Amino acid sequence: WPRRGRMYGFHQSFKISVEVSMQEIDYFAAETLDDVYNLLAETGGRVIAGGTDVIVQMQRSAFPATALIDVSRIADLRFIREDTGGIHIGALTTYADVLASCLLHEAAPALIQAAATVGAPQTRSRGTIGGNIGNASPAGDMLPPLLALNAEITLTCAAGTRILPLDDFLLGPRQTCLAPGEIIHSVSFETPPKPFGAVFLKLGNRSGMAIAVVNAAAVLLLDAQGRIATARVALGAVAPRAVRCLHVEAVLAGQQRSDGLFADAARAVQGDIAPISDIRGTASYRRQAAERLVRRALRQAFEQARTES
Ligand SMILES: Cc1cc2nc3c(=O)[nH]c(=O)nc-3n(C[C@H](O)[C@H](O)[C@H](O)COP(=O)(O)OP(=O)(O)OC[C@H]3O[C@@H](n4cnc5c(N)ncnc54)[C@H](O)[C@@H]3O)c2cc1C
Predict the structure, then answer these.
(1) CB 46 near ligand 1, within 6 Å
(2) Which of these, 55, 89, 101, 150, has the minimum number of CB atoms within 10 Å of its CB?
(3) How far apart are CA 155 and CA 132, in angstroms?
(4) Could you give the number of structural domains in the chain?
(5) Could you tell me if 149 and 249 lie in one domain?
(6) Which of 118, 184, 241 to mutate to test the pocket of ligand 1 (most atoms within 8 A of CB)?
(7) What is the pLDDT along the chain (309 residues), one digit of tens a residue?
(8) What range does the domain containing 130 cover?
């Protein structure tokens, strides 16, 4: 795609008309952020980045839009950097970029593990972190690790910038609080202080190219005595949106590791989730799998942190 079209000047961008699954749609390739804001205001269109969700949804007539604003050429949205405020990842950062980042290997191994499970190399080189967030799938693989890292999301529009917790941004299946005219600019989180462990685990119906039946992330920060100073756990595919597991976290906070601790904490996940049955698994299977995954993620995160300390 595009399969047919006429090109003409529009701001600094170009426009063509394309047809995807009998749906005719105007396509604008934006060159700058100002282009994007102007085009969103003038067309009421929707953003496309890597297109790995949008095109599939358009083919199923599940992406209502009269215009697509392509942001994929905007270099200002593709970065991974660290400053005193933490680590910042631009919305256009691809999974391949994440996997190639030494900074993220060091500071956010759960993001690396999650990115490595997404699709195949083709999807990982086109799909973006902003697209995974914007798509707000309950099973999106980057969402649990970002929630467990307590990530904040930066939204920008012609009028300015707002920053809010990712937890507040996700409202439900494919629903976010993105306002008209806004785009996802970046996602940020504090660099975890050492010693910490950060783990992502995914259960799918096969080992590759699988949408998660359940996915889980755990971040544990230890204090000088080896106690769990902070525990953040998040799950996907077990509720209408990826969720923080506050019941699990409450069991862990301030505790020394003991034989029963991670089992007790994992049992508490039942209070955090509301899974449904679908083609990938039943609700009761997901409940059992969630408990297992949480226990395993906690053990692995704790071992990672202990090795570091
Ligand atoms: C074969 C295949 C395998 C896949 N496997 C997985 C998998 O294992 N795990 C997984 O989680 N996902 C998977 N996906 C889904 C997809 O690759 C990811 O969700 C990807 O991150 C989406 O990014 P994108 O840039 O392609 O988004 P797009 O498709 O371009 O956009 C997705 C949504 O986000 C919005 N959006 C994108 N960027 C912005 C922005 N900057 N500001 C505002 N809104 C924005 C769009 O409007 C749209 O609603 C797979 C997809 C395919 C086709």
Answers:
(1) yes
(2) 55
(3) 15
(4) 3
(5) no
(6) 118
(7) 333 333 333 444 556 666 666 667 899 999 999 999 999 999 999 999 999 999 999 988 899 998 999 999 999 999 999 999 999 999 999 999 999 999 999 999 999 999 999 999 999 999 999 999 999 999 999 999 999 999 999 999 999 999 999 999 999 999 999 999 999 999 999 999 999 999 999 999 887 778 999 999 999 999 999 999 999 999 999 999 999 999 999 999 999 998 799 999 999 999 999 999 999 999 999 999 999 999 999 999 999 999 876
(8) 75-189
* CA distance linking residue 175 with residue 192, whole number of Å: 29
Look at residue 245 and tell me if it is in a domain: yes
In the three-class reduction of DSSP (H, G, I as helix; E, B as strand; rest coil), residue 45 is classed as coil
Same domain, 171 and 249: no
Place of tokens 């904040």: 152
Tell me, yes or no, whether 3 lies in a domain.
Answer: no
- What ipTM, to 2 d.p.? 0.99
16 and 44 assigned to the same domain? yes
23 within ligand 1 shell (Cβ under 6 A): no
Cα 134–chain centre separation:
8
Residue 177 has φ and ψ, to the nearest 5°, of -100, 25
Residue 156 lies in a domain: yes
Q: Structure tokens of 61? A: 């007539």
**For residue 210, what are the CA distances in angstroms to 50, 94, 118, 204?**
19, 18, 8, 6
